Amino acid sequence: MTYSSYGDNSVLSPTEQPQPKVGPGEVVVRVRCAAVNPVDWKIMSGGLDAMMDTVFPVVPGWDVAGVVERVGIDTPEWKEGDEVFAYARKDYVHGGTFAEYVTVPVRALARRPESLSWEEAAGLPLAGLTAHQTLTRLGTGKGDTVLVHGAAGGVGTFGVQIAKALGARVIGTASERNHDRLRELGAEPVTYGDGVADRVRALAPDGVDVVVDYVGGVLDTTRAVLREGGRHASIADPSVTEAGGQWMWVRPDGPGLEALAALADAGQLKVPVAETFPLERLADAFALSQAGHTHGKIVIRVGGDAA
């Protein structure tokens, strides 16, 4: 699926593209499943044009799970037939994962977790790495109390599970209808909105050690509940740096994916899948993502049966 100009979902169309070349330090992956992330349709609308160069026609998509089809020069750790998954973002926007084949730099590649289906594996990389990198860069560990803003969202769901696996106590903000889901993941839920800082303080009177913001617009709350010497980061609010926090955007990271795979295989990380679509219905999948009402990943099935 490609688009040849920025626009809404109507610019997407199925096209025939050449087989991707495989360069040094790369492999070609035959795609089994690829997951939708909001950044995919935001890029398509031109939202990142000031940040990233674009070469049309664009195949969108950054999350992938599939099988190594070919290997490039200097890739001794991979061979044809290996089952892999990746956050396959490149340095410019062009050859993405909503296709039969995609090239992936080996630095971004990891072996598919044995415990996850193709759909689940495809849904983990971008959101899972986002959560993992925010928490680990902040030094989250045993004994910390962590506040997750947007704990029931796509990244927040992973953030709760990863923070628990790192040994932390987790408090998560969400609407009341999602509180039971957060409890199942091991978080103590609080309702967001007016008075949220007071509700967090009621659970953590001495303040929290770590705050991760996955929604934006919550810096005042973060300041109100963070203990002296605490650490915080946001993926949605660049002004966080003015308050001593880190503004972060996820990096492709094969070793990070290996760590997530280990958590999944140990039963400490689950990947909720909301709905799957065939490749030709990518526009419908984008529309579902844009509506913002799903709980779990939206996955595109490209090749083979679910497994």
Plain-language structure description:
This protein is of the alpha/beta class and 307 residues long. The chain has two domains: 147 residues, Medium-chain alcohol dehydrogenases, catalytic domain (Quinone Oxidoreductase, Chain A, domain 1); 120 residues, Rossmann fold, CATH 3.40.50.720. The chain is built from nine helices and 15 strands. β14, α9 and β15 form a beta-alpha-beta unit. The longest helix has 13 residues. The protein is globular, with a radius of gyration of 19 Å. The mean pLDDT is 97. Keywords: Oxidoreductase. This is Oxidoreductase. It holds the Pfam family ADH_zinc_N_2.
Describe the protein's topology.
Layout: E1 26-36, H1 38-44, E2 54-59, E3 63-71, E4 83-87, E5 93-95, E6 101-105, E7 109-111, H2 118-123, H3 125-137, E8 145-149, H4 154-165, E9 169-174, H5 179-185, E10 188-191, H6 196-203, E11 208-213, H7 219-225, E12 226-234, E13 246-247, H8 254-265, E14 273-278, H9 282-291, E15 297-301
Parallel strand pairs: 2-5, 8-9, 8-11, 9-10, 11-12, 12-13, 14-15
Antiparallel strand pairs: 1-3, 1-6, 1-15, 3-4, 4-7
Quick overview of this protein structure:
With 307 residues, the protein is α/β, with parallel strands linked by helices.
Keywords:
27% helix, single chain, alpha/beta, 9 helices, 307 residues, six-stranded parallel sheet, 15 strands, Quinone Oxidoreductase, Chain A, domain 1, 2 domains, Rossmann fold, seven-stranded mixed sheet
Class per helix and strand makeup? alpha/beta
User: Could you say what the CATH architecture of the largest domain is?
Assistant: Alpha-Beta Complex
Largest sheet: 7 strands, mixed
Strand content: 25-35%
Q: Could you name the CATH topology of the largest domain?
A: Quinone Oxidoreductase, Chain A, domain 1
Protein name: Oxidoreductase
Organism: Streptomyces xanthochromogenes
InterPro entries: ADH-like_N, ER, GroES-like_sf, NAD(P)-bd_dom_sf, Quin_OxRdtase/zeta-crystal_CS, YIM1/Zinc_Alcohol_DH_Fams
Pfam families: ADH_N, ADH_zinc_N_2
